[in-house]
Description:
Layout: E1 6-12, E2 17-21, H1 24-33, E3 40-46, E4 57-59
Antiparallel strand pairs: 1-2, 1-3, 3-4
Amino acid sequence: MSRGRYVxxxxxxxxxxxxxxxxKYELATWLEHYKxxxxxxxxxxEDGGNxxxxxxxxxxxxxxxxxx
Length: 68
């Protein structure tokens, strides 16, 4: 099985880590079943060799697409 391109991270508004995933489908399933008590901040970051320099990309929690 090949590695995923991204690591998906879910944080609370105060910055506390809630969850992290390497598969977008697992993130989507988790978000459907787990309803954070406050706003959740979802982002992705490149995995692999570029990770030390990669910047997180904010994602829309409903669509999981990058926010503009």
